[in-house]
Amino acid sequence: MATSDNFNDDSLHPPALDHQSPDEAGCPLSWAMLDARAYIADRRNTTTAYGRTSTGVEIQVTFCTASPPVVSYFCVWCPEEPDLAKLYAEPRIIAAEADIVVLGVGLCFPNRSYGPQNQDIFVYQAGGWAKAPSLHLVRYPGIHLYFNVGILHHPNHNNQNEDPVYIVGFDPSERPWEFTVNLYNSKAESWSSFMVSLGRQHQHSQFRHSASKVIMMGEDDLMGFVDLRRGILFCDVLACTRLYYIPFPKPLKLKQQQGPDPIVSRNIAVVQDDIKVVDCSRCSISGLWKVSVWSRKAASLEEHWNMDHTLEICDNLVDSTTTLHFELLPMLDVDGIPRRTLEGLHISYPTLSLDNDDIVYFMAKVEPWDKDAWVLAVDMGTKKLKDVGVFRAERCSGATISYIHSRITKYFSSSSGMKGDLKRLGPLLPGSPCKKHSGVV
Length: 441
Known about the structure:
Helices cover about 5% and strands about 40% of the residues. By secondary structure, the protein is an all-beta fold. Among the domains are: about 1-115 and about 125-130 and about 400-440, no CATH class; about 265-400, Beta Barrel (Lipocalin), CATH 2.40.128. Strands 2-5-4-3 form a four-stranded mixed sheet, with no helix packed on it. Strands 6-7-8-9 form a four-stranded antiparallel sheet, with no helix packed on it. A hairpin with a 2-residue loop joins strand 22 and strand 23 (about 335-340). The chain is globular, with a radius of gyration of 22 Å. This is DUF1618 domain-containing protein.
């Protein structure tokens, strides 16, 4: 078992993936909530891919998935176990889109402080269409890549090798209305940079935009760089065209001026033909958590925002006949009586379902700093709590991304990444038969 001092002890013990629906067993999930931080463990299945760091260390990456509200995760391991000491910390997901996940892997160097220059970037591509998953090292120029990164890739069902993968970084410049786009082309295996600028109406010193999330706009090359406090900057990253700015609706902009860090209270996604934004904040009067969902058509920059749903997280959401796994929630003291209640929980990290079913997922804790957490699946349309999952939050600290939503599971084969883990018997070949371990640890 790994014992490197570079890792959180909790990262050495991946969680069990429980209460997966029987009708989903054997079928790829259309999407999943994916822990952004790797577990360090020797897990292998048909999602496993192998690569080498810039220092020659072999690593393997494996995804273990389950249906929301359970949070899926990925594991990183070095087949030569002593090599784990050469990794600086748990690898993290930098970006995910379609069948691609971009990973950051920190490396240890003697007598050198850690920084961007000590990080390797890998592109993981899911298998499928008779192709094995892959893990490729990207030449990394040491630029800032974290929340501000998107992926441009339109998978070709006939030949995955024909379609380049673009990694797109988006950074502010000295002028607040100008930005630098850093673009990696997997076919050319090279980086390029160019400047983009807003129109004259935004060219003033008061304009602010700090991208903390990136969204892809359908089948085109248009990307949206999202400041979760303010709005979205749209850019066709291959045509190097001018930026277009769409602010969030005024109620969301006003709320975020004094509100919590938007990373923990707000999220955005493109779901079918709509851009959706979910906001979660505590009402100063009732003390309850209030949630609103806004949307606009993705196809037009001229559309307006519409508020689709609003509700308060309260016990009225619970339906004893339809709410699943409510018994997983903790017993809280309510007027001297222990009972399960939503109204005593701290709510954060709203996550939009990518199935266009009006469900939003929330992380719930008794106290914000607790290590125990739950994921609540709330149907915003029916205003009912649908399901409850358990999330191990001992590795979460401060305002950082705990998990993301990703469609990569859609591209896994029917046996990929399903509940369970595999004994390590040597490198798996594409199509090799595997026997699942009888339990999940």
